[in-house]
Amino acid sequence: MRPKPANLLILIAAAIALVLVIINWSMLGAPVEVSFGFTHVSVPLGLVLLGFALLLIALFFGLLLRVQFRLLATHRRHAAELRTQRELVDNAEASRFSELRQYLQQELAELKEAQRLSEQRLREELLTSSNSLSASVGEIDERLERHFPVSPDKQP
């Protein structure tokens, strides 16, 4: 995995600072009169600077941990909300599918009923047409027999 540029920059700065401390250790180790406001103490300047640097590092590390834990808690809360929303969406989708199925079943039943009624009307009209046609054929047959009588020996 490649290191991030910011991490690489921090690592280079820390290496440079370490080299400067090693080169100037005799200066940093020399005792100096330091005033804390209420008292004067003779301590090595490097030790004071190192103490402050470690204190700052500890504070920044604590702040970093706090931010990371807040982000983790926020992430977990968002994940739980997302899971809840996903369940609601799944339930709504299932409900829509069941409503669609019911609607389609109702429409299919109505179409079947309309088809059955249409077939029944068609049969009735076919029967009426057949009866009308039979009556017309019978009427034409009677007219033909009146105009052209058939002798009894030629009748079937």
Q: How do you describe this structure in short?
A:
The chain is mostly helical. It is built from three helices and two strands. A two-stranded antiparallel ribbon has the order 1-2.
Which overall shape is indicated by the principal axes computed on the Cα atoms?
rod-shaped
Rounded to an integer in angstroms, the radius of gyration calculated over CA atoms is 52 Å
Structural class: mainly alpha
| % residues in beta strands | 5-15%
Q: Please, how many helices?
A: 3
Q: Going across the major beta sheet, what is the strand order?
A: 1-2
The tally of beta strands, per DSSP, is 2
State the helicity in percent bands: over 70%
Main beta-sheet strand count, sense and barrel state: 2 strands, antiparallel
Low-confidence stretches: none
| H/E element order | HHEEH
Give the averaged pLDDT, no decimals: 89
End-to-end Cα distance, whole Å, is 108 Å
Key attributes of the depicted protein:
about 160 residues, 3 helices, about 80% helix, rod-shaped, mainly alpha, single chain, two-stranded antiparallel ribbon
What does this structure look like?
By secondary structure, this protein is mainly alpha-helical. It has a domain at 43-148. The protein has 3 helices and 2 strands, in the order H-H-E-E-H. A two-stranded antiparallel ribbon has the order 1-2. A hairpin with a 4-residue loop joins strand 1 and strand 2. The longest helix is centred in the middle third of the chain and has 103 residues, at 45-147. The protein is rod-shaped. The chain starts with a helix and ends in a 9-residue tail after the last helix. The model has no long low-confidence stretch (mean pLDDT 89).
